[in-house]
Each structure stands twice: as structure tokens, then as C-alpha cells.
# Entry
Amino acid sequence: MDTDIINNIKSLGIDMITNAKSGHPGIVLSAAPILYTLYANHLNINTSDKNWYNRDRFIMSAGHGSALLYATLFMSGYNISLEDLKQFRKIGSKTPGHPELNITPGVECTTGPLGQGIATAVGIALGEKILSNNYKCPSGKSLFNFKTYVLVGDGDLMEGISYEACSFAGSMNLKNLIILYDSNNMSLDGSTTYTFKEDVRKRFKSFGFKTYLIKNGNDLKKLNFILNLAKRSSKPVFIEIKTKLGNGSLLENTNSVHGKPLTNDDIIQLKQKLKVPTDLFYVNDNSKSYMQNKIANRVNKVYTESVDTYKEYVDKVLNGNKNRINYLFNNNIQANILNFNWQLKDKQALRDTNQYILKTILDNIPIVIGGSADLGSSTMTYIKELEDLTSHNLKGKNIWFGVREQAMGAILNGLALVNFHPYGSTFLSFSDYVKPSIRMSALMNLPVTYIFTHDSISIGSDGPTHQPVEQLLMLRSLPNLDVFRPADANETIGSYKTILEKGEGPSAILLGRNTVPILEETKVNEVEKGGYIALDTNKKPDGIVISSGEELHQVLEVAKRLKTKGIEIRVVSMPNLGRFLKQSDEYIENILPVEVRKIVVEAGSSYSWNKLIFNQKYLITLDTFGTSGKCSDVYKKYGFDAASLEEKIEELLK
Amino acid sequence: MDTDIINNIKSLGIDMITNAKSGHPGIVLSAAPILYTLYANHLNINTSDKNWYNRDRFIMSAGHGSALLYATLFMSGYNISLEDLKQFRKIGSKTPGHPELNITPGVECTTGPLGQGIATAVGIALGEKILSNNYKCPSGKSLFNFKTYVLVGDGDLMEGISYEACSFAGSMNLKNLIILYDSNNMSLDGSTTYTFKEDVRKRFKSFGFKTYLIKNGNDLKKLNFILNLAKRSSKPVFIEIKTKLGNGSLLENTNSVHGKPLTNDDIIQLKQKLKVPTDLFYVNDNSKSYMQNKIANRVNKVYTESVDTYKEYVDKVLNGNKNRINYLFNNNIQANILNFNWQLKDKQALRDTNQYILKTILDNIPIVIGGSADLGSSTMTYIKELEDLTSHNLKGKNIWFGVREQAMGAILNGLALVNFHPYGSTFLSFSDYVKPSIRMSALMNLPVTYIFTHDSISIGSDGPTHQPVEQLLMLRSLPNLDVFRPADANETIGSYKTILEKGEGPSAILLGRNTVPILEETKVNEVEKGGYIALDTNKKPDGIVISSGEELHQVLEVAKRLKTKGIEIRVVSMPNLGRFLKQSDEYIENILPVEVRKIVVEAGSSYSWNKLIFNQKYLITLDTFGTSGKCSDVYKKYGFDAASLEEKIEELLK
# Structure
């Protein structure tokens, strides 16, 4: 029966690809036995309660294996119809080209860009470890004790992010993580003989994993045996499973079977081998029932226990008050914790302000957690009053990601997938390394906060490699990312309030490096609108200067100086351009009336600002790389010191 | 004497940091013995011929060790004065905060973002292997036989790009690469105990490296012994050298010594230990002469041999005609090879056109070489008529980077640093992974060509993870990157002509996935101007539509349809927005006269276009993620099919 079901999964996957005229048959045929074994015999899931908080997670890191995943989910009894499978890769379907979160029941993560899935899985496993430790009943039972399984291919393992994440998983000893490696020495372009000679199991051993080899990926008995060992491992587990890409196809073991539909002849001979009728979308209903029952019978007891544990937790730990745990399941966070009196120094670097705010949030909201890619003592996101999160201390709040910006992003996504509201920090210049994972946060609409400090050329002497110029625009133009560039403590608080109030979707907070005063002109509650009048004139303004971040300080100084010369300037602070552009026409016109000349001052790409200002000459922005030197010298060189700005603005308004 | 010089290098490095009030003392004190040993006893360099083509290369991957590097270069006799050291980290100096190419004699590569240096070094080593194999005299001697040395710290080795690049180096068996690991279990945030538990030597063994351990980084005898072994290795070499961060400082072995100047007290006690006078910028002239002579005496013979080999090569291989080798040393490439009759099919995907052009270039210019991050059979940059470059075939032209986008970028930079004009390809969506290395290409002004195919939502069924939306703007806004988005074969040829003619600086060519005809309206020679009139009207146009890439085809169709309705439209093709914006006001006004309404059609971020068009309603662009579906359905959903465009444009021009 097992083989029948596997073969039916294979034929369904192949039919989906044939019908869509697009897809990846290779992995369907190589990895179907792995997915079947996992779902039928190991994964603790409940297809009628797909969001069961303590379910095992399976991540298809090789996201091009979507047809295989959907066929398996269908056979497992998720709410996916045969019609859904027929709509594979079609617009608006439940079965898109690569797995997408919130579209297909049973899909736990959007995958496709290789390496992201495995790194996100590491984040999920980390999340489980923390949750498991922190939500225990008096009986010792925990609300959480699930495993995270992930299927990877050669491509995933060549990606740098997979090394970063797995080295982290080893350092944190995430024994709840089980990686299944569909190992067939074949990637899109051909055999991996040229490209990937490394001893992969040795590599995972060097990370601190327990490793296994299964020489024949069709050996279900061995698969079950090793998976049972893996579940009891005291280390993270890596299982190399030797398979044949496109097993059974005429193109078996060639790269041609990776990413294109099979020919008709090939399908006919394949289905004969598989002993499956040749009709498209054939389903053996007995097989489907058998698989569903197998899962239900196996998981029933675990699921009931989980329900009991939840009851015990609510009764004994929360004294019946479910509210105290609701945020863990509903993403329901209140922002009013930020409504107290701030005791900030008159003048400080915003990363210090940020630290103070972060600590307040961490003290109040248990599901907020985060860390830095080894720049915490410079980005100041390391909260020294709180404990470190380590393999030995899961109560800690400070995550040590190591110098692993990419993996940090994906791990944050994983944490968000198990309902944390995580944050991570590095220098803005290195947001380049995080971008691929931020894109995944945005695609999945996860409540991840990216804290990027050392914004702009004002960092000075570290030079152009460390001076972000184009990154601000890169982040602003990323769909669904909310980008804040506060000028001072007020606006930094306003940024966090806005983030906590919306409660969903990713955000980035960009902070300058230098010490700045708290401005009288800035307003906490205006940040959510994106831009507002910081300094106005009594008469009709001679000009409006729009600015953000550290540059706002110079602009305000200039405005005050010019006033003494009789030039009256309205200063508009724009901590969040994206939000401002979404305000009503009336609001925008009120802040930036058409008939007044407008100037922008921002040490970043001019592309950001043409939506507000057409004439290039009114843009005091930066479209070249910076240079190494003292901040004041660098500012002067590029015309961002107050004196240069005053001269330029005066000239422009003549 | 050795120790005296090392101590003088240390004291100079510390003085530079003290004087600059900024820098990284930790690595100066831990790694000075390594750098001294390398320069004094091993590196084949000629300080009076710093660009000697066959010099050994040293890359300071831990770029924050700039003070150590500059002090060592100074003592080695490069054209760096004591005054230059005093200007460390100051604006306009020869000694910027992190090493920068073309600023400091002896600096081979811009470094700073961790991991980039080591990955670039892999590219340099690969380049040497190819050159060494391809430029041989009849006597068997090669023009090239240099080694590439690279110093890395814990941070470098945690970065994903370093795994990617080293796994590649192992697969290519780059035995000319010697990695020196300054191993002190300490990174910026503290001990690596939490974050980096991996067995690093085992990891490098898994990649195919020969590994060594030196337990005491101050043991010069051992250092020399192992380096001598390393130079004879038949595999790439990884040497772990145990050091103490900030060796000798009061903060020795703590993260506090990593990135901040030492206190006065600390400096005084340190200089006592080092037996160096306490005066700032003390130099023992005897030490300096000794070190310079040591290098000169050792290298003299090798250098003379190299000069002889060059003569032999010119005489015997080139028959005295130096021109045939000049491009190898002068970056002098002629673009006229692209002036022949193209035999292109009427209709083909631009990636196929691109392949045809690439092959022509490869057939004519020996220093062009490239490959793909395992998408060559999909980006079509794999040239099947040419051989594969493998560890056993160094004549090959097709590089197999594996699924390693990040490392590919850095390796291309390394190849460019040894005078190749390399190219690399992947899907545009994954340009996100390459961005950090493209930034390095741009900072170093290297002639690297990035080929990004599968542009925009038109790729269809692979879905939003594979559909680039914001990447086009990300590339356009990167300073010093020349971004081409050709619409058809003519413009693709024009893009390559422009790239070959300029001969320097990085470029990106973005190609759609779908089959397109060669347009009558496009012009090869207009591409260099960035934008031009593709289709004009006889009378004053009713409107101008600007477009690029695949969308130009729909726009031309729409223009023709609208003409039958009496609406006359000028179509402007804009394959390179950045170049167009640099044209004279007259040129721009001629193409886009102020008084005519203008509309943009491009399936990418609207931020790109506000420089030309202020009113948002005239932008038919895309600021959200795409969706999985057939190309035609996706186009329709987002309004980029000809019918939707026609309706929209007609409405806008009413």
C-alpha cells in the first residue's frame, strides 16, 4: 500500500506539471518516498486543525518541489481538492508555482529562493526551543514540543545562507531540527561533479550535527528507522538520502528532468512502471483514505494530549485568564506600553535611545525577542540587563546570530512564523546582505523589525564600504516594507508605536550613528502619517525644506539662521516617506502646498524624492559613494554641513 | 630583529588608530607577526613595480585590519610616507578607514564588508590558474605563477559568502590559494563561544582543503615552516593560527579591544612590553631598511626571471608583436568585433540572443570569461560550443559557479582584478544575493558584466519569489553601475557594444524571459545614449510613451492601434535610464518635449521614473509583488497586456 500511495503522489505531481505545462518533475520522482514517509508516519499534524499550535512543521526548502508538496498535502487530507491540483501554477489558484504562506493549507512558509527555507526552518526550530522552555505547566509538560523537518536539495546546500543558518543551528544545538537532504548529485545545470565536491556530511558534522546516510531513498524501512532515531537525537540532525533525480523517467539522473514537463512518451512508460492508470489526475480513493487514516490514528493521541495541556496551562498557570496567552496565538499586541514618561538624556545617539525603547518593549511583551549579527554592542540592540539566549539558557532574550546577516533575516522570519515579533540589527550598509530575507518577510507579511544603524555618510571614517547611500531607497522601494528614518528620540518612539500598533508586516528602522539632541520640533504621534510640519512660519513660507534622519538637525539649524536673514522656511520632517505618500491629497497639499518651492535634504539616493519634487536642482541628495574621513569633513565634502546647506538653500530660494 | 620589526609595526598601527581616534587595535596586535612573516619571507612583490603582473597577491579580508596592513606596507617600502600614516582615516588620505583599491600602493582589493575579501581572493586564485595555463612559453615557463594569500578572521568565516567561495575553491582545487585564519575566538560582540562552535578546520577539510593548525601565532619559525609547506600543497590551503586579540593590551582577549582606540595607560604599558619608545609614530629606520632589503634580496631573482619570461613570451609566442598581449595588461578592448552581420532568428528569447553575442565576444576576446550560478541552461549563458572550465581543464570558458550567487559576484571581481573582463548570470530576482558584490565591483570600478535574465512579472508561473519588481530600481540606483534593459536583439547588441567601448566599470544587462521579435523601431547605436525615439509621429504627438524591455513591444503595438483611432503617439525606448539622464538638456528636451504629455510603461518600481514624470497618474508601473500564473494572465492582472495598456493610455490622453 505504501508504494501505491507514493506512486499515486508521483503521478499526481507529474500530471499537475503536464497540465500546467510548467514545473519541476525531477524532485517529484526523487523525493516522493521521503515526503510520503514523513507525512504518513512521522509528522504530528491535524489536517482539520491546520493551525494547531503544536503541530510539527515541514518546510519544503527546495520550493520548486511544490507539485510534490501539494500532491502529498492532498493525499494527507488537507482542504485541497483535485480541482485545486488542476489549477497548479494558474492565476488565483490555491497551488501557485512555488509554495506560498497563507494560500495553501499545510504550507508553512513561502519558499523558492534556494536556501531561504532551510534558514527559516532554523528560526522555527529556535522558536520552538524557546517556547517549549517558557510555556510549561506545573506538571512539567510544555505547551510546545514539536519538531521542524525540512527538505533540501543540492542547491539549498550550496547557498551561503544555508551554511550560516546551519552553523548557527549547530552552535545553538537545535536538536528539534531534522534536515532531509535529497541527494542526487544533480542541479539545474547538470551534475554537481564540477561544482559541489564537498563532503556534505563532514561539513554538517563540523557544525555539530548528528549525520546519517541512507543509501537508497526508496528504502522506506530505513527511512522510518533513521527518522525514529532522529527524533530522539541530542543534536540537530542531518540525513543524507541518496535518490535519483527524476527516478523512473527516461531522463532519470540527468539535469533535463529538473525543470521541464516530461514528454508524453516518458509519462506513459513512467506510469506503467508506477502501475498507475494513464488517465490524467488519477486518484486511488482507497490510497487517499488509507493515508489520511494513518495520519489521524497516529496523531489522535498526541493532539488530545496537546488540548489537555493547553487546558492545564490556562487553568493552572493563567488561572483561567486566556487573555494572557492570546497574543501568542493571535498576534494581538498593545502599543500602549510606550505611553509613559521617557527618561532620556538630552542628547544621545539614536541607537542608545533605541536600546532604551527596546528594553521597555522586551520588559512588557514576552513574544518580542531579537539580537544582532555580531554588531549588538555597536548597534546597541544588546540589552545588558537581560540574559543571553544560548543553547544552555533558553530564557534569554539576547540572540547571538554571529556575523550572519543573511541567516539572521531568515531566522527572524522563522521566529515570526511561530508567533514571535522578532527584531534583528546590523549596520545599514549591510542591509544588502539581509535584503533577500527581508523580501521573504514582506512576501509573508511577517511582523519582523529590522534595525539598521550607522545610516549614511555621517558614519565617517569607516569609509565608503560602510557608508550606505542607496540602501535607504532599496528598502523604501521594497513592496510591503514600512521604512522609518527617525531624526531623534521622539520620532524613534513614534516609529515603534506605529509598528506595535499595526501589529503585522515587516518594518525597518534606520538610525544615524551620531549623538543628537531631542528636538522640540518633532512629534511622536505624527510619525504614523509619515511626514509633518516640524517648524512652520507665521507668514506664507519662502520655501519648504523636507528632510529626515540626522540631516533634519542641520536643516532646522539652517532654517533658524535663514530666519535672521529674513528668509522664512517651513521644515517638514519625513520619517517615513512611504506612509506620507499614502496620505490623502488634502493632507499632502496642506503640508506641501503646490505654490511654495520645496527642497529636499537627505544623504541618500535622489530617486527617493522625485515623487515629491520634480526639478532635480531642488534635491540636495547623494548619488555617489561616500569617502573615508571625519564626519564633519565628509559632510562638508558632500555639502551636508549646516554652512553648505545654508548657502545652497539660500541660493535656491533667491 | 624580526621581533623588533613586528613590534614597530604594532606600535605604528596603534599610533595610527590613536591619532585618528578611530580604528581597530585588536587585529593589529594579534596578526602583526603573521603579516610580517608573510611580507618579509614569502610574498613575491616588488615595491618599486607595484603592478608587476606576476606578483603574489595579499588580500586583507578582515578589512578593519587596515592600520596593520598600512603599517606593514610602509615598513615593506611601498610608496607610503609616515605622513600618510598620520593621515589614517582622514579625508583625501592614502590611508582610508578600510583598504581601498587604487588609493594605497600595495592594496590589491577594497575590503571591509566581511567575507568579500576571501571570496574575491578565490576569484584571483582562479584567474591565476587560468592565466598560468594559457600563457606559456615554448620552454614550458608560464607568464603567471603567483600565489594568492588572504587573511581572515572569525567574522569572515561566519559569512555565507566565505562558505560559498571556499566550497567553490575546493571544487576547483585552487592550490594556489592560501588562507590564513587569525583565530582568536573573539568577534565584535564578544567570545565566539555562543555563536561559532563549528570545527572550522573540519569544515575546510570537507571542502577539499589541506588544513594546518599553528597553536601559537607568535611562533615565527612555525609560521615560516607551514607557509613553506603551503606553497607546495597540491590542494588549497587553510592555516588556522591561534592568536590573542589585542595581544599585549590590558584588554587582551576581550571584545573591547576590537574596535576602539586603546587608552593612554594601555598604550604606555604596551609600548614598554614591545620595547618601543613611547613617542607617537616612532620608526626604527634600521628595521625598515632590514625589512625592505630582506624582501628585495629574496624577490630579486624571481622578478628578473619574470622579466625574462615576458621577453621570451613576446619573442617566441607573439613574434615580437606586443599588441596581442597588451589587453591583458592595459584593459584595452576593441568593440568593433560586434560590427558584423547578425544572423539572428526573427523571433527569439533575448537570453538566446545574448548567448549568440556572448559566444562572438568569447571567440574574439580571450580575457572575457564567465558563467552562471547554476542557471546557465536557463539564462542561456552556457556556451555549449566552448569547453567547461574545471579543475582539470583550465582552457575552458564556461565557469560553473554552482548555486552560489554571492560568491559568483566576488569571484568575478577577483577575475577582473587580474585583468579579465568577466561576466556572470542568474535570474534578476536573485540579483538580491549578488548586490553586496556588485557594490564592490562599483566601488572598485571593475569591468564586470552581470547578466540578469527572467526580468519582471512576465516570467509568469514561478510566482512572486521569482518575479523581480524592485530589483531594477535597486540596480539603477547603485552608484557607478551601468544598467541596460534592452527590448530586443538590436538593443542587446547595442548594450554590449556600449559595455565593450567603455571598457571599465561594472554593468548589468537585464533580459526578459519571453520570445520577442527583432523590432524595426530599435537602434543598435542609440543604446549608448540611454533613450531615443523608436517610433515617431508626423505631426506633433498627442502623447509620448516611454518604455523599456519586453514592455516596449506592447507599447509599440498599442501605438499602432491608437493611430488607427487618430491618436498619434511617439514611443521612446529607454534601455538605459541612467545614461539618458546624463544626456544634455537639449537632447532630453528633443526626445521628451515639455509640452507633450508623457506616460511610462514599465513593470517595475515607479520610483525609477519620477525624474522624468512627476504626475503619478502617468506612470504605468508596478509597486507590488507579482503573482503565480501564465504570463498573459499575470500581465492582464497588473494591466500590462496590450488591451489594458491601450485602454489606459487612451484614457490618459483624452
About this structure: Chain B has a mean pLDDT of 95. Residues 463 and 627 of chain B are 5 Å apart (CA to CA).
